[in-house]
## 1
Amino acid sequence: MRRLLLAAACVLITAVPAFAQTLRIALRQDLDVLDTTLATTYVGRIVFAGLCDKLFDIDEKLNIVPQLATGYEWADDRTLVLHLRSGVTFQNGEALDATAVKYSLERHLTLQGSFRKSEISSIDHVEVVDPATVRVVLKSPSGAFLAQLTDRSGMILPPKATEAAGKDFAAHPVCSGPFRFVERVPQDHVTLERFPGYWDAKDVHFDKLVYQVLVDPSVRLANLKVGTVDITTDVVPTDAAAVKADPKLHLVVYDALGYFGITNNIANGPQANNPYGRSALVRQALDLAIDRAALVKVVFNDMFTPTVQAVPPSSPFYDAAAQVPERDVTKAKALLKQAGVALPVKLDLLTFNDSDILQASEVIQSMAAEAGFDVHIQAMEFASSIQASVRGEYQAYMIGWSGRVDIDGNTYAFLHSGQGNNASHYSDATVDKLLDEARGTVDVAKRRTLYAQMWPILRQDLPITYLWNGRNIVGMSAKLNGFRPVPDGMIRVQGLEMAK
Amino acid sequence: MRGHLGTRIAQIIPTLLLVSVLVFCLQQLMPGDPALVMAGEERGDPQVLAQIRAELWLDRSLPVQYLHWMGNVLQGNLGFSWRIRQPVAQLVFQKLPVTLQLGAMAFAIAVLIGVPTGIIAAVYRNGFWDYVANAVGLAGLSTPNFWLGIMMILLISVQLGWLPPSGYVPLTEDWRQSLATTIMPAFVLGNAIAAILMRHTRSAMLTSLDQDYVRTARAKGLREFVVVIRHALRNALIPVVTLGALELGTLFSGAVLTEQVFSIPGFGKMVVDAVFNRDYPVVQGVVLVTAFLYVMLNLLADVLYVVINPRLRGLEG
């Protein structure tokens, strides 16, 4: 019996794996389809970061930097000329040239079910000037267009392999990134292997990447501690201290692109017809009743940034003048009195089933009560809450946005009249004009001025009560060097290496 | 006996049809538009939503959607996953062995723990070992799977470093690694069933041990071990086998939570992801296959019941 037990113990102990030259990356959920044109998930973008290069990348300060394109110039305000890197090949050996760029952009625009179409719909047509030069002609000037090429819209696919694979492309995707596709087991993992022909091979220090789906935050942390994963994004704020305290691990916290806030139903159906929906003064009162700094401290261990705007402090469009107000319950009460509403002001706060967000809602409920609000929290499963917001079946909705590189991606669709993501049905002619003008110019200084004019109006009307900018919280092995904290939260494998 | 089996087999098809209608109707009652979920953060574009609805037949009436799906099922096509665009049959084929392995290991653990402790508890009725077995059983029944799972990960993987905390390796790829990744979840899953089996084995054994034939066996001078195992246990096992078959359903439902905690890519994890992502073809496919398996396992239990109890062999209907 003792021999048997000893043998069983040996079997189990030797079965704990050792992963040399393999980088294991934890994902918080399973990704969707591995096709750059059809994909929608955030975690899918993390896998694409190993599989596919883009025309441009962004750096830690959100500057647009070369990747497959070595440079660009605006021939006029509607014509973008791209200069491509020479000698780049796809993982199947096809050459990456201007024809491939034209093919990929046109595929994004025309493939049935494309989710990229709306991102680059400003393209009128694409011309091949020579094998290393592409001319992209826009329908109208677009200040946000270039930033779209730093994500999936800028990922270039090999025309022959893509056409040959047809609808099965996602089962065996081919790209031009540092790692090529090996296998995918849905709900479990995606494996990529080193692509020897990569144009920047000197910066690639692993033979294999394994993206492991680990949904539960405690299990992600356990895997990180044991060493069965080397790096994980989305460490929950309450686990950050445990990562920090572990000498074998390293914690990196840096700005993310998105925000979290309360979307207020101003004109979306009958549920907008209440004191909170009708009166900006009542919304201002709630805004003043919330102590964002305390909220972030209590719920998120002080790891997020209190805010009143849609972009993080690292964005070139962050407006230093739009600062978070001090909590002022007296003024909030005065505003409610000025609005002439009966107290307490009843308000249904819709939220989704996430323990942190529910806790944040409860903190808001408690703070608001002191100012004269009676907040009732309605918790729903995520998909149901989204549907309720689209249909206008809500008064105020706790919801965030993962964020885009350019400010246009964080504002236009949520604040401009008639846009699909404008769930509050907010409509203001001046804000519309400022958003349109800022979108229609490539001059960054001018755009910054236009957005700066918009925040004071939004602070008065409050279609969205911005609460905090999220931050990326990444846990990794202390031996892992070369990690670049870029706000989009992607794990760039170029330059990453494991110390001996 | 043959007639009885024939009737049971004939019941399978209407049962599965009923299940297919039920699951199709129930998921329509779920709030949350699948097109909105599919569109992700592109949901703001009405054109995108309309395109998804048309592509997935969501713009047709419910009976048309059902008949379209059922027509394909009857031809052996369970449809395509809306989210990852792979055939549902392929996903089922990929995931089923994982859950079957987990379930088989969990059931083996449950039997290995539950039956012997039940026998010991009955033999030492109201004694120290009976109280110990009952206390263990009660603890097994009262401990939630997800809590036990997380605690075991923290203790056995993080603190002691004996086993990997999560994941799965197929048996065919590396059997040792496969056992290492599944032994902990199998224990968590089998734990509650072990407790139920223990209590039923104890109760059935107590009844058997009081029977005349057991007294006769003892009077013949047989050793107590032989009396308990060969005479009392054989009769006591009949209700335990029936209960075991019923508990296979508990295994499948328990696998949903256990696979989620241990990140095992099996049926349970697939169906949870599919429900949250409103991936209807996957939900329908998984439920249909699970119902089929459940019906077949109960049929198997009926056969085993007859094998164990010779008195039923001559019965018809």
## 2
Amino acid sequence: MATVTTPGQKAGGAPGGERIATASIAALINDAIVPKPSLRKTFAAMMAREFRVLARNAITTFVRSVMQPFLFVFVFAYVLPKIGGGMMVAGGSGGHGAPGGGVNFATILVPGLMASMLLMQGIMGTTMPLVMEFGYQRTIEDRALAPVPLGLLGIQKILAGAVQSFIGALIVFPIVLLVHAPGQAPHVDVTNWAVFAVVMVFGSTMTSSLGMLLGTLLDPRKMQVLFAVVLLPLTMLGCVYYPWSALSAIKWLQIVTLVNPMVYMAEGLRAVLTPSMHHMPLWAVFLALIGGTLLFGTLGIRTFRNRVVN
Amino acid sequence: MTDTAPAAITTRDLRKTYRSARGDVEAVRGVDLNVPSGEFFGLLGPNGAGKSTTIGMLTTLVAPTGGTALVAGHDVAKDPVGVKRRIGVVTQTNTLDMQLTVAENLEFRSRFFGLSAGQARKRAAQLIDAFGLGDRRKAMATQLSGGQARRLMIARALVHKPEVLFLDEPTAALDPQTRVNLWNILQVLHDQGQTVLLTTHYMEEAEELCDRIAVVDHGTVLAEGTVDELKQDAGAETVVTVRFEEQIKPDFPERMGLTARSSVSSAETDGDQIRVFSSEPEGLLGDLVEMGTREGLHVRDATQTKPSLETVFLALTGREYRE
């Protein structure tokens, strides 16, 4: 005859040995605080959630943010000068890059590198979470059910990406000041804090808005396209390694690069960090950054809403 | 629940058509529902019937392309935020925030709904205790078993005391123990007056939990009512089976006039037994025994199988494979 053992049977017992008390369940309904949500409270709670996740992933985020500028600076401001990379020095050529002469490459690199970080962190910080949230499990529905319009949820995601972008760009400063060959220290100074703030704020929001647009348009299975077709060309042709005015030697390229939003971030930062170098007029920079933020933001939020509800 | 209870959910000619380059797909083709406050209402249908799309529209996650839907008195298309404030949703897939712990999932959801950080911690602790997740409080959502994740999703849907709780196939792919425990939880919630709309394709789940059921297929409601009403109205039949000691001649049903009866849809013999399908089975068993006796047959046993929700469901939706 078969022997039947009944391990730990208990009324209302949950699997794994936990006990679910019906009285406790009933109390959930009867003793609940009646919430009074508001757009401000919900928005603040969503941002608090972003910062909690950012703090939890602080080490990996920091390493990801530091590696690119560190390697750039290490190669261009330390290795090349050490091995005699004099051709990398732009100063004294009489060209558009350094009319004042004596500007080393590290100095040219700082604004470009910051713009590069604004772009990379802004897009990665917004696009990658969206790709995961719109994946098979559609975890986006967790936040989409919060009592706010979907447009506000989209703005919150752009803001969260912009914060990462902003912090990522600021990380460049200590790296360039610490990593360089003797005599190759960059000469950077914030000559106008207001302009610096405008470029940083709108640069970061523009890139995270672009990240929102890309994250809601791209098929998650084809994310490699993001790197090959978007990030790489934008970075390589974003006036990281030379000022935009230096492209006057290749007129067609100078014109084509005007569609690259990164150019305006690099030129804006160049205007405020290394004003002795040629740079675009500030009105053009502001127009592009503010206009780009509005354009990408509007389109991104529209595609975001469409992705959520369809 | 009474007839005068205010409607928690009302839909009129609710429609959803998905448009694409490969052609339009009409997922929901004019659904009319009326769910009073406090009712446990079930949407029962095969895969692809339109259940999830309907629940998606009612929870503002899918935009309707026609008709109207009011949830807790708020229009899903015109006032989605008003709807979201008043509903709790357990989706079919695991939509927990995988970047957060069990406690954080509940705390942040509470804060999304306006609770202060302190209130959110208290509410999360209450929910964790009630749902037996105490020893998983600090576990990441990614580390939960299927049953634990499902309990956490239900707990999360209750943080703000929703007026209407939507459950989209909440016990799909769960083991029987977890399923029965979740049924207990849902029953207790219902006993406290919680309005629930459940989609499922488990007959026993709908039969066990729901006050009323709507059977949906191909985007429309085929039948609606209590389980008993559905069994009566949906054309499902009682099966009366009599087994004799002797073999039965194949023409027995015809000779005895069974096939001529309007209440009998079919009668079939199989060796020593006869099966009769009837929508009005009263007295049929006695008639069969008497007919057998007249033929010189001796009854070995007899059974009468009432229509189940499953037979109702199959009668309404057919037997072909879906998806």
